[in-house]
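Q: I have two molecules that I believe assemble together. Could you output structure tokens for the complex as a whole instead of separate predictions?
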Amino acid sequence: MTANETTPIEMQGPSCPIPHHHTETVVIGHGSGGQMTQDLIRNIFQSQLGNAFLLEGNDAARIPLEQLNGEIAVSTDSHVVSPMFFPGGDIGRLAICGTVNDVSMLGAIPRFITAGFIIEEGFAMDSLKNIVNSMAQACNEAGVQIVAGDTKVVEKGSVDGLFINTAGLGMIPAGRKIGGQYAKPGDAVLISGTLGDHGIAILQARGDLGFESQILSDVAPLNNMIERLLDEIPEVHVLRDPTRGGLATTLKEIACQSQVSIRLQEESIPIKPDVNIACELLGFDPLYIANEGKVIIILPDHSSEKALEILHNSPYGTNAMRIGEIFQEDPGQVLLETVFGSTRMLDLLAGEILPRIC
Amino acid sequence: MIEKNISEILKGYRDADMVKRVIHEIHQRVTQPWAIMEICGGQTHAIMQYGLDQLLPDEIELIHGPGCPVCVTALELIDQALWIADQNDVIFTSFGDMLRVPGSKGDLFSARASGRQVRVVYSPLDAVRIAQENPVKQVVFFAIGFETTAPANVMAVLQAEKLGLDNFSILPANVLVPPAMHAILGSPNNRVQGFLAAGHVCAVMGYWEYPTIAQKYNTPIVVTGFEPLDLVNGILRTIKLLEESRIEVENAYPRAVTFDGNQAAQSLIKKVFQPVDRKWRGIGSIPNSGYGLTKAYMHYDASNRFNSGDIKTEESKICIAGEVLRGLKKPSECPAFGTLCTPQSPLGAPMVSSEGACAAYYRYGRKSS
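A: Yes, here they are, computed for all two components at once.
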């Protein structure tokens, strides 16, 4: 065979494959740190969450200290709720509200938030966009800014869709001393609204209830309402949001921290009829179901009426009630007085009722 | 609309004034000490939750019966469940309560944590759906419960048959109330003088079996519901019968229970289940006290499908669950109660289930009473 007899190569034009544009789902390349990461950050995050701090584009946010007066409050939280979209909210709103509320519980004014996203490859870009949009709206409502963020994309199966880790930073105005250790005998216990809405909404969204209901999660940023309250009534002793473990578990923690006992009147505890019925059918106690937009307020009793008036004037406090009092004897106990005149003790939630509710 | 009605209906049965009035009448009627057993764990919990026991006269002692299906499920069955869950290509399904019940070694939660497929379902029919969605897996449902859950367990088998699913089976563990009542009342150290019969069991089975039991053991029986007013009313009627020395069976839950019970449910049960001897945890074997599958449905029995071989069981040495379940001791009399044994790290099943007596005592703060 000579060179002349060589079979001619059929040219089919340039054969270098044009890469797919991954605009519909998140792929591993979005977490590479390269061009795709930059595109993701620009198109999804900066476009919706952009502010002077974030747009600086550095490895860390530079925060001028003049903005901070007195002490700072710092909190961090991870959000793994399943399903990510549920009646009344989604993981994005939950991440912002949860962090804002945690910081607010020290009487701090939440200012800055950081957000780390761990995304499973194949996650729908539209869903991510919607979630980030919810975060932007919640930030707007709460008056906070996301000043730093991080994105990692992991192999299919390594996480379930999307997990978000946040940190929150807030300033505590001079003179405020609020915390779970400051409840005092003679104080009144208030709750800002109905209990158990979030936990039952999640259960319903999972399709686990086996029946239909219209229960919405209560997920909401409470900082504006709390700020109005503290403006008028600076002598609030305790603020605490009854998230996982519900009202009962949270009050038990406060009773132990402050070395006091708490007596609650069952008939004054606000619970929506739908939530009550769902709990009846499933054998749950609504006092142990999670909330994401409620706050327990413990303050000198003489201020409780005024506090209720302020709460009732806020969109997130319309169903606020005075539900109990603080006593000195039997420190660490939480007692519920039933409508029949008997009492029962409330303890910490044992084990898991509903996994991955926040 | 329906929801509103339910909550309106419930309100009536939780009316504080009505409950107090009945309690007052109980106080007036009682002239001597009486020991009454509520057999059902749901009733034990309601009594504790509403604190009704605190309102009763000192003369009345409520003995908590073995009416928690999670608690009385034999250790052998739990170990068998753990063995099945540990097999490859199995999705083991169960009500949530069963996951934390300690077997000889470990529980279903730890099986799940070690990578086994253990799923919580709210209805046996959910397990059938999982079988439909996972044709290459064997799906097993842990069919526990009293007569109350039997119709749903039966429906799961019938549904699997209808769908032609050959990857669905149940581990039959249903237990029956009347044989347990015979066992308790016939025991030489029995202290029970009157019975609150379990309203929901009777809603399915009726109470035609009870007059014989009442006569044989000289013990009045009152079919009782679960709301506060139902419970105090059931207690009042039992006290009246006891005080008047009348050995009778009364129905204090007529809105749910008839003498004959739910005939449709009973005939379905008969088609799929037959009475078999069953071992109760902490009590021992009771003749004809459980449901096994009938010959025609034997192939849905997971214990036939999976040969677990001989299982050696080992109970905790400190736990007094057996005596608690027989009504001989109160949970708080156990040396481990609230210290070594808590709902977070239970030694015995009654500390686990939402219907278990130990869990009720713990949760509603009866630690030191």
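A: One point stands out. Chain B has three domains: 2-68+177-251, 71-176+261-305, 321-363.
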